[in-house]
Amino acid sequence: MKVSEKLNVIKKDIQAAAERAGRNTDDINIVAVTKYVSNDRTQEAVDAGLVHLGENRPEGFKEKCEAISGEVNWHYIGSLQSRKVKNVINEVDFLHSLDRISLAKEIQKRAEKQVLCFIQVNVSGEEQKHGLSPENTSQFVEELANYDKIKVIGLMTMAPLTEDEEVIRSCFKQLAELRKEIAAKNLQHAPCTELSMGMSNDFTIAIEEGATYIRIGSSLVGE
């Protein structure tokens, strides 16, 4: 199926979820996760009107950026090793996985412009997931005041892979609460207005709980 056809289906789901939550769809951004698909399929996504593209591998990232034409915002959505920062940081507009000071230091050292960052929070506490614990997130955000190449625009999480909607919803709710707490501090380097949460299987729940960026791969561009 064409990306444009899949996008129409997803937009209807977004509209319905936004209406249930009393939200405006203009506040919800789709990040098309193109990490598993070819440059041609990625270009098809851009031609369908998608302006946010998500990648998570440093290898081949720059080449993909150069191969795609059009107005695109590149999102790096995977865990980023400090030693790989130099390969990607000046190609990306958004980083969704800031979770340690060593990474912040490397961004500060390598970035030629300010990078819009989401702090990755491991709300579910699953051992295999990266991210800060909710208890340590606020302190970490405050520590980033010394890094002028980093602007904390929001928080990011991944819900557990489960059929239990209440578990998923609870995860997103907690992130939304944490975002509010940090935003209330009025930190100049960390407005923290955004929430990156929700993927192909749970984005409608994420929208109901306040997501402003949803990361959709398989159901939009395919595997």
UniProtKB/TrEMBL annotation:
<dbReference type="InterPro" id="IPR001608">
    <property type="entry name" value="Ala_racemase_N"/>
</dbReference>
<feature type="domain" description="Alanine racemase N-terminal">
    <location>
        <begin position="71"/>
        <end position="222"/>
    </location>
</feature>
<dbReference type="InterPro" id="IPR011078">
    <property type="entry name" value="PyrdxlP_homeostasis"/>
</dbReference>
<feature type="modified residue" description="N6-(pyridoxal phosphate)lysine">
    <location>
        <position position="35"/>
    </location>
</feature>
<keyword id="KW-0663">Pyridoxal phosphate</keyword>
<dbReference type="Pfam" id="PF01168">
    <property type="entry name" value="Ala_racemase_N"/>
</dbReference>
<comment type="similarity">
    <text>Belongs to the pyridoxal phosphate-binding protein YggS/PROSC family.</text>
</comment>
<dbReference type="InterPro" id="IPR029066">
    <property type="entry name" value="PLP-binding_barrel"/>
</dbReference>
<comment type="function">
    <text>Pyridoxal 5'-phosphate (PLP)-binding protein, which is involved in PLP homeostasis.</text>
</comment>
<protein>
    <recommendedName>
        <fullName>Pyridoxal phosphate homeostasis protein</fullName>
    </recommendedName>
</protein>
